Amino acid sequence: MKKTIAILSIIIFSACSDFLDESMQGIYTSETFFKTDDHAILALNAAYQPIAFTNIRNALWVFGDVASDDAIKGGIPGDQSEIEFIEQFTYTRDNGFLEHIWQRYYEGISRSNDAIHRLGNRVNDDVRERVQAEAKFLRAYYYFHLVNIFGEIPLKAEPAYAAADLHVPVSPATDIYEQIVRDLRDAADDLPVSVGGQHGRATKGAALGLMAKAYLFLEDYDATLDAIAELEELGLYGLMPVYSHNFMEATQNNQESVFEIQHLSDQDPFQGNVLNQWFAPQPENGYFFNVPVDDFVDAFETSHEGVVDPRLDYTIGREGQTWINGEPFDPAWSPTGYINKKHLQPLDEIPAGSKGDGSLNYVFMRYAEVLLMKAEALNELGRSAEALEPLNEVRRRARESFLHDETLEGFGEVPDGLLADITTTNQADLRGIIRNERRTELGFEFHRFYDLMRYGKAYAEARLGDTNFVYDQHRYFPIPQSEVDINNQINF
Known about the structure:
Blueprint: H1 2-14, H2 16-21, H3 37-48, H4 60-66, E1 71-74, H5 81-88, H6 96-117, H7 125-150, E2 153-154, E3 170-171, H8 173-190, H9 204-217, H10 221-233, E4 257-261, H11 275-278, E5 289-292, H12 294-298, H13 310-315, E6 316-317, E7 339-340, E8 362-366, H14 367-380, H15 384-399, H16 401-404, H17 427-441, H18 448-455, H19 457-463, H20 471-474, H21 481-486
């Protein structure tokens, strides 16, 4: 036995240098990856991963809804208190939710940069063009959110080839937007009109829609209309007859969807939508966060006889109405008496035991928003009479839900005076109407806070007057302390 051990020791130690010199097997590096078509597609797929709502680190709803006048944190008092600090504008740089969204979306940018710049010469030209176009759309998507949340941020348009490349100073928001529109123009030129059954991939229409939104935020209204005209020329998009079909699993990826982020239940690795649990009431094994407030409810119009805009009950649960499972809604489920439901699935689709593994997609942009952007741009250019057509198209669909949705009380006839066509051409009055229409049409789709900020100081401070919000101090959230600590080009 001793002899055998000795022989083994000699073999092991004599071969030690050979073992140490051996390359690791099954491990890719930047030198061995990005070489083939398959590698290129894998790199692109990785760049899509951070956009999904597969964990709490993609808490876009905190910045889109809870920070706005539409919602409060909700949930059990004291649970996830950092969200409440954001709601009340009492946060500090070490707030975990600032760090989550920053790290996740910069990870998306990093992966997009790899897909754009690292493809080897063995990748076919058609694959290269497709991958780079989709990755440019994704990079623009990530930067659009980051610049609206944080303002001046590091602009990283290439991979980090060396350690020094990780340290990048902040750029003005205008420079970030220049990169966004440049990426979207390139993407729109190369992306296909349709991706067949590969739902969730960027298309020409998705790039044009986000480009229109970027130009709208820049107040370049002519460019906004040009991008929308290109999108409309594709002839692909239209409003669904029933508003709620944009938020149901059975009718996902429909004609109204311009860009939709996909989720699947019961997958390994996990691809489910966790919002289904974060927003659901506690009796369904939910956490009941992101709950609507009275001011949001009051934004919806009613008819002469008191019939409310049907979008209200498509968007939230409230007392006296039927909940998504068919039972009466219980206002005790929420600290405000309301639950938002655009991101929720009934228990017969996702049972309580797997509530956090939803299969409902997130629709980032719908054609309804394109129409409202068109109305806003036309009105801001002084073409208010032309703005009425796209605005009233959105309102018409909402009121005509009564002609298409058999579940509505009074089905078959539009209630008299409900959501009548807007006729005023007074620019200031129409501006207020369009802003309210965006609020009700797009409620709880994570857009409201961005809108409040771009509407300006007076509007934002008036709407957030019951918080500690001061426009000059809180227009943008601070760069997370963790990034300040590791990036020696950021000095505060």
